[in-house]
Amino acid sequence: MIIPIVAYGDPVLKKKAKEINKEYPKLSELLENMFETMYNAHGVGLAAPQIGLPIRLFLVDAEPFADDEELSEEEREVLKGFRKVFINARIIEETGEEWAFTEGCLSIPEVREDVFRKETIKINYFDENFVEYTETYTGLAARVIQHEYDHIEGVLFTDKLSSLKKRLIKGKLTNISKGKISADYRMKFPLAKKGR
User: Fold this and answer.
1) Rounded CA separation 195/181 (Å)
2) Is residue 151 part of an annotated ligand binding site?
3) Where does Fe cation bind (predicted)?
């Protein structure tokens, strides 16, 4: 089932999410719906707060980046079939040089900006079967994870922009929160007038 994606301006996107346990109701159904919602919106990641749930859960599928000719063959191989669920994730460390990449977000349609992030992360998380992992990721795989991880920490990619950039996109962000935007997927707008 496709779930509407919560738009910029909804308080759930600014909350630090809570951990869940394996008894979380209908978890496998929720994950199925989240993947379906993400694919429907042509996203490479989706966090539970983006569908209105303040829980520490996100999923990624970075396969679309595997076709990027600018990436090394090694990095393209990593991204092929890179489809994962992260529950109760904690980034243990971020290392390496900061590098810029243009990011967007399903909750903030039509806004894309360069964001600087460290190139390597070490992360501890549980998968959909509550098997625990501690793994290291680098490059675009790390970036996709960092972006979604920020969502469960109540941080949006626009929070990482310079104050000048923030001022330049302020009007766009206000319009998104009011529903004055066209996205080709279902969205839920916090400030939209009822009956729209």
Assistant:
1) 16
2) yes
3) 105, 147, 151
Output the pTM of the full model. 0.94
pLDDT tens profile 23-63? 999 999 999 999 999 999 999 999 999 999 999 999 999 99
The Cα 143–Cα 129 span in angstroms is 24
Closest by Cα among 165, 163, 153 to 113: 165
Catalytic residues: 148
Considering only CA atoms, which of 124, 120, 142, 143 is closest in space to residue 134? 124
- Domains of the chain (ranges; CATH) run 5-187 (3.90.45.10)
Between CA 47 and CA 66 the distance in angstroms is: 21
Residues in the chain: 196
Quick check: 194 pLDDT over 60? no
At residue 172, the 3 state secondary structure works out as helix
Sheet with 132-138: list strands edge to edge: 45-47, 57-61, 83-105, 108-126, 132-138
